[in-house]
Amino acid sequence: MFGDIIVASVILVIVVLIIASMVHKKRSGMSIGCDCGGCSSCKDEIKEH
Amino acid sequence: MSIKIALAGNPNSGKTTLFNALTGSNQFIGNWPGVTVEKKEGKLKGYKDVKIMDLPGIYSLSPYSLEEVISRNYLLNEQTDCILNIVDGSNLERNLFLTAQLLELGIPVVVAVNMMDVVDKSGDVINIQELSTHLGCPVIPISALKGTGIQDAVKAALNAAEKLTIPSPLMKLSGKVEAALASIVSMIDAPSFIKRFYAVKIFERDSKFVETYKAPSGAEAIIASVEKEFDDDSESIITTDRYRAISKLIGSVLKKKKSVGLSISDKIDRVVTNRFLALPIFAVVIFIIYFVSVTTVGTWVTDWTNDGLFGDGWHLTGGEAYEAAVGDYEGEGAKVEAYLAAADKAGIDTAGISETLEAEEPNEEVVSGFIKEASAANLTAETEIKDEDGNVTETLPVSLADFETALAAEEPAPEEFGVWVPGISALAASGLGAIGTSEWLSGLVVDGIIAGVGAVIGFVPQMLVLFLFLAALEACGYMARIAFILDRIFRRFGLSGKSFIPMLVGTGCGIPGVMASRTIENEKERRMTVMITTFMPCGAKLPVIALISGAVFGGVWWVAPSAYFLGVFSVVISGLMLKKMRMFASDPSPFLMELPAYHVPTVENVLRSMWERGWSFIKKAGTLILISAILIWFLSSFGFTEGGFGMVEDLSQGLLANIGGAIAWIFAPLGFGTWDATVATITGLIAKENVVGTMGVLYGVAEVSENGEEVWATFASHFTLLSAYTFLVFNLYCPPCFAAMGAIKREMNNTKWFLFAIGYQILFAYLLALIIFQLGSLIGGGAFTVGSFFGFAALIFIIFMVARPKFRKPTQLRDVSQTV
């Protein structure tokens, strides 16, 4: 039971963080899942947001 | 106070290389013009308040292309403190045309003469001091690639920005033009530092400029009089005059070494752009890249990642001994099978013993009962020993004693041989077991997250090898030649070589590929390019190619290159079909592109480009794919059973199977109408890596089973060779992913066009897969069915669309104002 709580909590936190970052990225006008490799400017712009 | 420095210069003059060096950024660079289509902002390393803006490459400040409008608007409206004008020292005359215009903007300018290493190597000498005097601004020699002179250029730019030193060039136009400009300047009501630029724009009758700034009433008479005198239009008069002044300047500042024949670049181009050799060389280069990436170097590492790192584990030492033990164990298994087959043939019932031998703990009574019967019948058998190619090398007799010995053989445990490193799956499973995690949660972590993400991550080595090759080809200058080579072919189906650049960029990722279409002036050609760019296999599609190639085709050499060439074929056929439609009918725009000199790419730039692309792939696996894997695991592991909603034992009872099963009929004519393949295709629309991730969760592709060769066997068992290939074809050419679809929508800037583009991609992928499967089935000896009829109908439809007469309509240039 204790193990279940730990593992489930870790997964939940990771999922929430990923979704939050995706929403943030989308609101910043970036493409989710862009593979272009030129995303440093995206990173900078997200930081500024 | 913050300072804004804008990097401006001709295409392929090295702006982005300098931008990366100044900001520590990793913007994508390529040795061909038009890489930067959007302005990019960064902060100067070591200076918190200094912003650097990388502008798209332009040849002038005229309003004829989107890049020119973007750059000009930025320089005029964003209060730039200094322009750092990057000038290609090896093409000084052409580059100074833009410089001459920048000097008129009333903004401090510092000219950085780039590629000085190339200039020095060629033996040419540029008199920097004299150039500076004539231009009326600081001139700094640099090499952005080698990193020399960069800090001097930065210091000069900061100094000019702080002191607000407006350039005062000595270079003048001809007397009559200068007099006309002076008259117009006197009529203009504007700050004195910008009056000259306004006067030139009014003189040129610049369409975009006069929209916002009304020309003084007396200006037109002055312009008309000069035009009459020169017998030319005002814009051409300015252009000719500028080049005349620049040419005079070049004569005094540049000492060229006497030409000694063709340069090395010219010599290489005589071979690689040769009328007859160019295309075969291109085909061989692409074949080698994909062959090495997918079937050799990449595969060795990918196999280890899939089977070892994300599987049970791998041997540091003792691997050979373990393989030998596994071979012996399999030999014993073959003896059991042969003996049971012989017993069956002899009329002894083997159903009971076969069943008990598959159980975890065989029933001793059943075994001993069988042995008694076999003994009474004095049964013997023969087993065949085969080599790696499946040829029988030896036949061994199997007696009852041999059978009993074989039954007692135990499967070798890998940890008992040498140094064994457990894989992530095995470690996670044992770790979760140790802390008493429930079976369902352990399933979520091992079968959902690790299997799904691991299946995708496993292909990273192959992608890195591919990206390494592509980065090297881009950096050395060969990619620009490919655009030139393909122009001849592209022109025949309504596109120009310029359309190849988006497709070339699209081999890395479709999103920047679609965005790169902005460099195409002809609107119809641009829309067509947006629609077909994603037919080129992007990096995310590589795992799908590698999975089908490895799992179903046994790593045969032609599958991966065929995906690339089929992509080119799809582009060609689509071009031929679309250009016949009224909405795309126009003549292709002329192809003008500067071929950069070949240069040896720097290891740092190539590795950085490779890593940036690879890293974004890994990041996606850890975010989007991870979420998808969890969702797929949940939907496949839970469903409605007789006892209500809960976890199901068989995946075919899960929610996912129900959803996939309901729409699988759509794909039945393509040969893969199963719920699992349908689900993989649909999740692939979110991101193409999901196709592999979904297979990972559903079939456990990332896990190693008892025999290493069985890793992909489960996957392969769901497909025939033909259906696997059509599955690959449909997934490669249908819309790539949500992100790319978003990019298509942005670039089309119109919902109807966006829906048409997506609809076309789905229809084309469907018809192509349908034709391959139905005709392939017929060729393979299948019967003529309703599906075959539709396969032929689709083929005839495509041939008709390609061969029908062309609709004639004049070329329409894009109105760039609508996109700014």
Describe what this molecule looks like in 3D.
The complex is a heterodimer of chains A (49) and B (820). Chain A has 49 residues and is mainly α. Chain A has one domain (2-48). Helices cover 71% and strands 0% of the residues of chain A. Chain A has helices at residues 2-27, 40-48. The longest helix of chain A has 26 residues, at 2-27. The radius of gyration of chain A is 15 Å and the shape is rod-shaped. The termini of chain A are far apart. Chain B has 820 residues and is of the alpha/beta class. Among the domains of chain B are: 3-163, 3-Layer(aba) Sandwich (Rossmann fold), CATH 3.40.50; 175-255, Orthogonal Bundle (Helix Hairpins), CATH 1.10.287; 328-416, no CATH class. Chain B contains 37 helices and 14 strands. In chain B, strands 2-3-1-4-5-7 form a six-stranded mixed β-sheet, sandwiched between helices. Chain B has a two-stranded antiparallel ribbon with strand order 6-8. Chain B has a two-stranded antiparallel sheet with strand order 9-12. In chain B, helix 3 (92-102) crosses helix 11 (234-253), helix 20 (439-457) crosses helix 29 (624-637) and helix 34 (721-733) packs antiparallel against helix 36.
